[in-house]
Amino acid sequence: MAALQAEARNLLVQWKASVDTIEAQIEFRNPIWIRSFIGGIGKSVGYFAASIQHMESTGRVRKPTWARNAAEAWSSHHMMGYQISLD
């Protein structure tokens, strides 16, 4: 478990460092790069953030077994095991 946690923390450090790079690239107003970002990793991160927001705002911890669309399928697959804080 410790190795998984370390790997997740290392990935998080990389993601945080990427934010500054992404913001700087957007300022260059390069439509090719921006479209690539939006259609690639940007879309995945967007789905991830929306899934967390939905789970935490509704208190719903489980998606339907049979997803009705691609977004639900993505969320169901990637949010499995996510735990909502019980503060």
Explain this structure.
The protein is mainly alpha-helical. The chain folds into two domains: 1-29; 40-87, no CATH class. It contains four helices and no strands. The protein has helices at 2-27, 31-39, 41-58, 70-78. Helix 2 packs across helix 3. The longest helix is centred in the first third of the chain and has 26 residues, at 2-27. The radius of gyration is 16 Å and the shape is globular. The mean pLDDT is 84.
Q: Estimate what percentage of residues fall within beta strands.
A: under 5%
Query: Biggest sheet: strands, sense, closure?
Result: none
Tally of DSSP β-strands: 0
SS content category: mainly alpha
C-alpha-based Rg, rounded? 16 Å
Q: Residue share in helices?
A: over 70%
N-to-C series of helices and strands: HHHH
Tally of domains: 2
N-to-C CA distance: 24 Å
Count of helix runs = 4
Low-confidence stretches: none
Instruction: Please state the average pLDDT score.
Output: 84
Gross morphology is globular
